[in-house]
Amino acid sequence: MADTIILPENQSSSRSSIIIPSEQTRPLSNGLWGVILLVVDTDNVVKVPKDARGGLYEIEKKVYERLGTHQRIASYLGEATVRVGPEWKPGLLCRYYPLRTLDVFFDNPASVEICKSRRQQLLWAAQILDGLSYIHSCNVIHGDVGIRNILVDQNLELKFSDFGGSSVDGAEMRVECAPQYHRAHSWRFPIAGIDDLGETWKMPTRMMDTFALGTVLYEIFTAAKLYKDEPYDIRRRRATKKEYPDLGVIPIVEVRYVISNCWSEQYSEVEEVVRDLQPIWAKGAYFGLTAANPACSTK
């Protein structure tokens, strides 16, 4: 498909923000943050916040600009101004990934065999580690790590996205991740009757992401979503009580060990996870992998 965006009359492509008329978009998804519009006849989407004054738009823009181009980060193309109803609104222009997010990919019956492939699971694990390590190296904490925020490209490679709730240079976060990816304590928005209201919210640390990494790895190696179809309050109670699933369903001992350590908050850096998975990368040929340590470099 073409990448050319049609500009309205009397508009120049030299503007700092690309102008996209309403007739060149169609709705793709609608969420709490805002809407995602597909720019027709292109390989692009534009994320339009419901309220740009909330700060999430500026945070996500800042993160994408800092992260730049990286094989594990969704491609960000710049700012756009898009017509939504009677208004012109700001948006973030990004590459469109037709396979959508990893959680959507899991739900596709045609993807079952791919998701159950041990080789694919190991490659995905390596890509997740690669991406999260890079994000942290840029002094960014994602804050909402989960398979709903990880995109799948046409080559089945993973890309991190959705940085509106991230922390940059230690700044406070404005969102809270789903319960299955959250530590049992330090909730940003505690709920009476479920959480310990006496807890003090702590400033973000990388351990928030490494904890969530454990759940992502569990979901990848079981090819299933943790606590799927359970209501939010039940998942929240499970998280607060540290009710984690049996890891015996995962046959690789190193993976079980790492997930357990993530959930018990033993890791503060992604590199520690990579270290503990070294025995797997050393057996790369057995799993049909081309690199001895794909976590460090997955092309």
Automatic annotation (TrEMBL):
InterPro entries linked: Kinase-like_dom_sf, Prot_kinase_dom, Ser-Thr/Tyr_kinase_cat_dom, Ser/Thr_Kinases-Pseudokinases
UniProt-recorded Gene Ontology molecular function terms: ATP binding; protein serine/threonine kinase activity
Gene3D superfamilies in the record: Transferase(Phosphotransferase) domain 1
Keyword hit for tRNA processing: no
Domain (Protein kinase): residue spans on this chain: 22-287
Matching Pfam families: PK_Tyr_Ser-Thr
Keywords annotated in UniProt: ATP-binding, Kinase, Nucleotide-binding, Transferase
The keyword Kinase is annotated on this UniProt entry: yes
Residues that span the membrane, as ranges: none
Name this protein carries in UniProt: Kinase-like protein
Lineage: Eukaryota, Fungi, Dikarya, Ascomycota, Pezizomycotina
